[in-house]
Amino acid sequence: MAESAWTIDGLFFLTVLAMTAATYSMRAGGYWIMGRVPLTPRVRRGLESLPGAIIVSTILPIALKGGLPAALCLAVAAAGMAVLRKDIIAVFFGVAAAAAARAAGL
Amino acid sequence: MGGRAPITAEGMWLGARLTVPLVPGIITFAAVFGTVCAQKGLTIAETMLINSFVFAGASQFVAMELYRDPVTPTVLIAMTGIAAAVNLRMLLLGASLRPWLGQSPAWQVYPGLYFLTDMNWLLALRYHAEGGRDWGVYFGSGILLWLLWTVSVVPGYYLGQLFAEPQKWGLDLVMPALFITMLVPIWKGRRQTLSWLVAAVVAVASWQLIGGYWFVLTGAIAGAVAGAFIDDPEPKEPARG
């Protein structure tokens, strides 16, 4: 398969289009569905609870799976945010703590 | 509250500035993807195509695990299916934007949703939680992320070894760290505590029992349902319309 840098396989192109369409339908689908559900106070409360629930569900398994460095990173970042209220600094300290923990072989 | 969400240049600029702490992580993540594509035998054109079109990091990596040369219809279905599965959580990100964007015209919202990622969703939602209403913040962040993502894959494709160890620098943890900083300002009291507790228990349980990426979905839905049914102590509801 002597192919130059700029060739694109036909089926690969179709694969990318299908992946893009599938991903877009996820991006737009949730918003679209909620347009068909009446926004009662209860539904609104559920939607308002969604971001926090997404965040907790996403990071908790990462913290448990990533061992001590990941848990340390998240603890430092959360504490930094609670004290300093600056996300950039909190993230920096969290990531630095993880890098240090890994460098120390933890 | 309510009404059409404004989109201003100032908002877009703010969104771009809020994205700055994520820049090293994004560049590295995209570059590593370029390296993976080079190793799997994609051309640079194919690499840029899949990277810029799909624009969804984790799902691109997982899909490339299923890539085979030559591509067959089976590979097409497998890669598309896994992209849909990994990105299912985006349904929830989009759903959570309804209270903010519900009054905006569809021609503004639906093209804009192409740029939806965890990162600009997170930054925009935090801005919204602090009282902001300008949807330009979402666009400014999303477009900057797309540009960085699109450009950074190229050096990764050609200079793979430079980006071999993002873990060493903790760059794989930038996103989780940013996620957790978001929890601090959105915590308001009992309803959040209970809802997050439910999300945590369900997420960990499904991570242990089912595996894969389902824990984001199951945990988030469980937490949202719990939040919907936990009534606040004071009886007032925010006015709608």
Notes on the protein architecture:
The complex is a heterodimer of chains A (106) and B (241). With 106 residues, chain A is an all-alpha fold. Chain A has 2 domains: 37 residues; 61 residues, no CATH class. Helix content of chain A is 82%, strand content 0%. Chain A is built from 4 helices and no strands. In chain A, helix 3 runs antiparallel to helix 4. The radius of gyration of chain A is 21 Å and the shape is flat. Chain B has 241 residues and is an all-alpha fold. Chain B folds into 2 domains: 163 residues, no CATH class; 44 residues, no CATH class. Chain B is built from 13 helices and no strands. The mean pLDDT of chain B is 89. The interface between A and B is large, with 81 and 100 residues.
Oligomeric nature of the chains:
heterodimer
Largest sheet, strands/sense/barrel of chain A: none
Protein structure class of chain A: mainly alpha
Task: Measure the end-to-end span of chain A.
Answer: 45 Å
Instruction: Find the biggest chain interface.
Output: A-B, 81 and 100 residues
* Strand-residue proportion of chain A: under 5%
| Helicity range of chain A | over 70%
* Rg calculated over all Cα atoms of chain B: 19 Å
Rg over C-alpha atoms of chain A, rounded to the nearest angstrom: 21 Å
Order of helices and strands of chain B: HHHHHHHHHHHHH
Report a brief summary of the structure.
Chain A has helices spanning 10-36, 41-65, 67-84, 87-103.
Write the layout of secondary structure elements.
The complex is a heterodimer of chains A (106) and B (241).
Chain A: H1 10-36, H2 41-65, H3 67-84, H4 87-103
Chain B: H1 9-19, H2 23-40, H3 44-54, H4 57-65, H5 73-86, H6 89-96, H7 98-101, H8 106-112, H9 118-129, H10 136-158, H11 174-186, H12 190-209, H13 214-229
Helix pairs in contact in B: 1-10, 2-3, 2-4, 2-10, 3-10, 4-5, 9-10, 9-11, 12-13
